Amino acid sequence: RYHFCGGEGQAWQRAPYRLEGGHVCRLVALAKVQADKKQKWLHALSLVPLSQVTGSPPALPEGTTDNPYPYARVVPPPPPPPPPPPP
Predict the structure, then answer these.
(1) Confidence check: pLDDT of 64 > 90
(2) Alpha carbon of 76 to those of 29, 68, 73: distances in Å?
């Protein structure tokens, strides 16, 4: 639900965007640590795992856009290999 990255020395946030499945993601770029006291270099969150979220999904935030990464897909990891046969 959040995408964090270094902000090339500047702090900024992109408008929220929709992912596959209707989830919303927010991009937060952070400045270098204490590079400029006016630039945000720390971001605190209080998150609830999606598996524990109940009820209908919240409304899309104002200004939500399409996914800016059109070729990116969230793909589950492949299943683990089967165990070796017994000797």
Answers:
(1) yes
(2) 26, 20, 10
